[in-house]
Amino acid sequence: MRKTSVIIAAALFAFSAPIASFAAMEHDHGSMPMEHGSMKMEHGGMMSMGKAAHEAVVEGVKASFVVIDNREMMKEMKMKESHHIMVMFTEPKSGKQLTEGEVTVKVLAPDKNEEVKALMEMEEGFGADFTMRKPGKYGVMAKFQLKDGKVRSTKFWYTVK
After folding, report:
1. Which of 1, 12, 32, 74 is a Cys-bridge partner for 79, taking CB atoms 3.0 to 4.6 Å apart?
2. Is residue 33 part of a domain?
3. What pTM, to 2 d.p., does this model score?
4. pLDDT for 45-91, tens place per residue?
5. Residue 138: which of 120, 117, 155, 125 has the closest Cα?
6. CA torsion sign, 25 to 38 to 67 to 146?
7. At 89, which CATH number?
8. Which residue from 134, 138, 139 is spatially nearest to 153, judged by alpha carbons?
9. Number of domains forming the structure of the chain
């Protein structure tokens, strides 16, 4: 299942490449997780494609979440996922990006169904696709452990219209 999610996310990025002006993408499908060191994104890259959803400073780390509505594109690709959730971590004072760690996100749908995924590590942050097709209020809960070893969490509501 995780391998399928990673491949789906890779396909999403491949199809959105012209929009985000990616120069090239290299994927090592033979050994998961995927290496995204070659995925170069200018400041704002994919993060600028979506809607700023939440920002919080948690124990000295600023977490900035963006949600990208991909319903139409994913529907055309016959995929159940509809939204891409991304998070970028920075040091609040210096603005230095924190790009190493592990992030898990749980999305609670209006009908109380839950979807839990590990986010894929990328150059600017972390991301994964989630199923948020029905209108309503979704709970997004993130648990993350960055290079410093501290486990942090934050949550927010996101409304799908």
Report:
1. 74
2. no
3. 0.70
4. 555 677 899 999 999 999 999 999 999 998 899 999 999 999 999 99
5. 155
6. positive
7. 2.60.40.3340
8. 139
9. 1
